[in-house]
Amino acid sequence: MGKLVGFCSMASTLFLIMGVLPLALARGHDYGEALSKSILFFEAQRSGYLPGNQRVKWRGNSGLFDGKANGVDLVGGYYDAGDNVKFGLPMAFTVTMMSWSIMEYGNQMGAGGELSHAMDAVKWGTDYLIKAHPEPHVLYGEVGDGNTDHYCWQRPEDMTTSRNAYRIDQNNPGSDLAGETAAAMAAASIIFRRSNPAYSQELLTHAYQLFDFADKYRGKYDSSITVAQKYYRSVSGYADELLWAAAWMYKATSNEYYLDYLGKNGDVLGGTGWAMTEFGWDVKYAGVQTLVAKFLMAGNAGGNAPVFGKYQEKAEFFMCSCLGKSSQNVQTTPGGLIFRQRWNNLQFVTSASFLLTVYSDYLTSAGKNLHCSSGAVAPSELLSFAKSQVDYILGDNPRATSYMVGYGSNYPQQVHHRGSSIVSVKVNPSFVSCRGGYATWFSRKASDPNLLTGAIVGGPDAYDNFADHRDNYEQTEPATYNNAPLLGILARLHGGHNGYNQLLPVEIPVAKPIAVQPKPNPVKETPFSAPIAIEQKTTTSWVANGKTYYRYSTIVTNKSGKTIKNLNLSVSKLYGPLWGLAKSVSGSYGFPTWVSSLPAGKSIEFVYIHSSSPAEVSVSSYTLA
Fold first, then answer.
1. pLDDT tens, position by position, 460-484
2. Region class of 573: left (phi > 0), else alpha (psi between -120 and 50), else beta
3. Which residues have C-beta within 8 Å of that of residue 137, sequence separation ≥ 6?
4. Does an H or E element contain 254, and which?
5. Which band of pLDDT confidence, cut at 50, 70 and 90, is reported for residue 1?
6. pTM
7. Cβ neighbours of residue 437 under 8 Å, at least 6 residues apart?
8. What is the DSSP letter of 25?
9. Residue 622 is inside which H or E element, if any?
10. Contact, 114 vs 39, CB < 8 A?
11. Which one-letter DSSP state was computed for residue 46?
């Protein structure tokens, strides 16, 4: 789990040490490979029923009853880091930053064949965030709790820890959580606008409601969800998230209400006052200042231009401080890496590098230079410095270590991550107990049995030192928000600028569909201890009007020693007809009219047809006779 603070700095004398040279002269990396792997990491962090096109094969279904005790479906989403908790604030920020990466560099991702994977990664997050927002003024911000989770070392498929869900509402507000989730929904709505307009509109509806909730009922989320304080305390408060959400709402809607909100509230909420040297899941000021500067350079400020000019001054302070050209510069290691804190420092490096990258392109499109206290700086210098940070992460550093797992020949082998450090449930389904996992797997002085491909770990200390030990969680634990900003930078470095004006509205290309190969073997199962087993398989497929259709057979088996009655199944992501079950008015499915119960050891079958990967089938309720 990540913690917070600030970041960014580079003394000009270090440029020679690090070799911040013109791009053509710098050491080469395969940024396309790094991009592919950085996206793949998100599939290892998935919670819930895994899809048929899941590429990280050592993972299995997990968290299948999340939210059930609270009467809400919270299955899905992402585990934030090396644990099995779903924290809403960093998850929403992860979705926002992945969406921003696609918004700016989706064309480059498409050219490299990774746009579909990136958009899938966003949608896995937004599908969950939609579930977490069941009412306009209710938002679930955490499933599980860090204290019980940290007491155990279990793969997510086995976890026995608390799965209680925690929420904010009108009486227990959380403007920072609601604001960030509004930003995530709004940003994601932009990237799906062309390829999935109905889904885009659904996201925008949630964004409208969440912004209203955040603004009308103000308060810090960790005062309402107190179990989050130890892990994701909102140190900066909620003012930055209100501005951040307003900026994304304007970006998604072009509604001048949100533009005026930024203008009228810039001073009182700190957008024009805070000169930052950090950007991350908690402190959003540098991000909103960069967005507002883009609005100004694109000619969209209107009567807010004087106030937006103040935002831009603070955005440029951030950029200059990273380059070592400000009155207050960020700290760097002897090897030239931005350094803010020992605990998961690379989260700040990737976030800062993303802002430097997009601002470089904004300035290039506007035909302007960056203005620092030391003088004018060409846009290319911002991109060169961002590139130097990425190259450091990928191995150009004093230790010659890649801090992306699976990239290069020398990368962390003992990652602080429950799933990767314990043998896959697919290899050995034997139950791993809460404390037994510590004794058998956590303390094991050997490489992880499962490669956590693409994960960006916490990284080195202030002196470029790094200890590759599983118990060194400050340096070897990965996090989703480490990777999210990196997607955009890697796409930019791999695909180049593409020659378009970054200040104009960007049309996200329609991603090429990812082929789903039908599998004759079961693709989904209930947990091993469940009294009801569900398995699906493809029985046939055919092509009609250029589209491939699949027929799926689903077998529901009673593995308890008693007769099952009143069975209710949830079938989601179904896009075609279904036979063999009776659908209720509530939308769930039960026994067909000719079946009243399912004796012990017996099975029933139902089938459905659609042109997608298998539907998500789970047990909602039943009784044992």
1. 999 999 999 999 999 999 999 999 9
2. left
3. 169, 170, 209, 213, 217
4. none
5. low
6. 0.80
7. 152, 153, 154, 155, 418, 422
8. T
9. strand 616-624
10. yes
11. B
Residues with a known catalytic role: 416, 468, 477
Per-residue pLDDT at 79 = 98
Question: What is the rounded CA–CA span in Å between residue 191 and residue 189?
Answer: 6
List beta partners, residue 139: 168
pLDDT for the residue 15: 29
pLDDT tens digits for range 437-452? 999 999 999 999 999 9
Burial (CB count within 10 angstroms: exposed 0-12, middle 13-18, buried 19+), residue 494: buried
Confidence of residue 513 (pLDDT cuts 50, 70, 90): low
Higher pLDDT, 8 or 422: 422
DSSP strand pairing (86-87 vs 139-143): antiparallel
Three-state secondary structure of 449-508: CCCCCCCECCCCCCCCCCCCCCCCHHHHCCCHHHHHHHHHHHHHHHHCCCCCCCCCCCCC
- Cβ atoms of 139 and 167 closer than 8 Å: yes
pLDDT value at 603 more than 90: no
Q: Which two tokens stand for residue 200?
A: 């885009």
d(CA 56, CA 580) in angstroms, rounded, equals: 32
What's the CA gap between 119 and 117, in Å, rounded? 6
Strand, helix or coil for residue 549: strand
Question: H helices then E strands: how many in the chain?
Answer: 19, 13
Q: CA geometry: angle at 190 spanning 487 and 304, to 5°?
A: 105
CB within 8 Å of 5: residues ≥ 6 apart: 235, 278, 340, 341
Structure tokens at 67: 């939210």
What tokens were used for 5? 């603070």
pLDDT value at position 522?
Answer: 39
Q: In angstroms, how far is the first alpha carbon of the chain from the final one?
A: 44
Question: In Å, what is the CA distance from 526 to each residue of 55, 84, 311, 584?
Answer: 20, 18, 51, 22
What is the reported pLDDT for 577?
87
**Using CA atoms, how far apart are residues 149 and 146, in angstroms rounded to an integer?**
5
Q: Is residue 349 scored above 50 in pLDDT? A: yes
Under 8 Å between Cβ of 425 and 158: yes
User: Bridge partners of 495?
Assistant: none
Instruction: Render pLDDT for 295-327 as a digit per residue (tens, 0 to 9).
Output: 999 999 999 999 999 999 999 999 999 999 998
Q: How far apart are CA 391 and CA 490, in angstroms?
A: 10
Is-contact 181 210, C-beta < 8 A? yes
φ, ψ dihedrals at 329, nearest 5°? -100, 155
The region, left, alpha or beta by phi > 0 then psi within -120 to 50, assigned to residue 503 is alpha
For the record, the structure tokens of 117 come out as: 């994977």
Is residue 420 within 8 Å of residue 44, measured between CB atoms? yes
Residue type, 75: V
Q: Which two tokens mark 102?
A: 């696609």
Going along 493-614, which residue ranges are E strands? 532-544, 547-558, 564-572, 578-579, 582-583, 589-590, 603-610
Question: Among 67, 192, 182, 165, which Cα is nearest to 129's?
Answer: 182
**Sequence-distant (≥ 6) Cβ neighbours of residue 399 within 8 angstroms:** 460, 464, 465, 466
